Amino acid sequence: MRLVSIPFILALAILSSGWALAVELSETQLQNTDTADPMLASNRLAPSELARSRAWGLSETEWQRYKLLMQGIRGSISPSTISPIEVLGIHARNDDERRRYAEQWARIMREDVERILAFQRAYDAAGKRLYPNELMIDVGLLPDPNENDQKLKDGDRVLLFTRPDCAPCDALLTQLLKQIDRVSGVDFYIAGFEPGDDQAIRRWAAEHGIKPDWVRTRRVTLNHEAGELERLTQGKAEIPYLMRRRDGEISPLRASAL
């Protein structure tokens, strides 16, 4: 039988233990990048990643942990825009770490809100400076939150402020007369005639298809405008204008309600 020398056996044992130790260290570095040598982590990061980690206020080992987490379930169920700090905070390993990332995220968000508000103020000032006579937003085009309340009911009475030789006024009047049976009545306030010139008012009514019987039964009233629109709206409205009388209260009415 051939004998193996003791020095050879010792050398083989040392090599085997060294290989096992190397494998164990490699697995530990992948599982817990926070304990890895920063120089090793730095060598594994591309320059662009180094710049991103610094922009987020994270160390290179924290960035490596973030990358590993995104390769798992977090990257599968979260949007691609989730921030590294949120990822690290969600997967914090203890309360202190969770609190630290939460405070870091709160500071970042607070600073971002301040930047947004500062730009909004600058934008508002620019709009007023560049377009001093224009509204930034036409509130008349915004959806009415009380859209359902705008619908006409049986007991409603509609007021239309109008004037002769006004195409938009006539369009509203035509649409309103189609609803004459749905409401309790219509009150016309006509501008552009001399005070007391009732003959001109009656002539205007006949030209617009308003039946005398409606006037006799007061389903329709014909009135000189005489500043009534300014009084009801504090001067904030122009002809043509619709209003609604319901339960003794008068409020603006959208044309879409007709």
Overall description:
The protein is 52% helix and 10% strand. The longest helix is centred in the middle third of the chain and has 36 residues. The chain is an alpha/beta fold.
The number of E-state strands comes to 5
Name of the top-level CATH class of the largest domain: Alpha Beta
What is the H/E order?
Answer: HHHHHHHEHEHHEHEE
Helix % is 40-55%
Strand content: 5-15%
Order of the strands making up the biggest sheet:
3-2-1-4-5
CATH topology of the largest domain: Glutaredoxin
Please state the structural category: alpha/beta
Count of alpha/pi helices: 11
What is the annotated CATH architecture of the largest domain?
3-Layer(aba) Sandwich
Shape: elongated
Query: In the CATH hierarchy, what is the superfamily of the largest domain?
Result: Glutaredoxin
Largest sheet entry = 5 strands, mixed
Distance between the termini: 113 Å
Mean pLDDT: 80
Give the helices and strands, then pairings.
Blueprint: H1 6-31, H2 38-44, H3 47-55, H4 60-70, H5 73-77, H6 84-90, H7 95-130, E1 157-162, H8 167-177, E2 185-190, H9 198-207, H10 212-216, E3 220-224, H11 228-233, E4 241-246, E5 249-252
Parallel strand pairs: 1-2, 2-3
Antiparallel strand pairs: 1-4, 4-5
Task: Write a concise synopsis of the structure shown.
The chain has eleven helices and five strands, in the order H-H-H-H-H-H-H-E-H-E-H-H-E-H-E-E. The chain is α/β, with parallel strands linked by helices and 258 residues long.
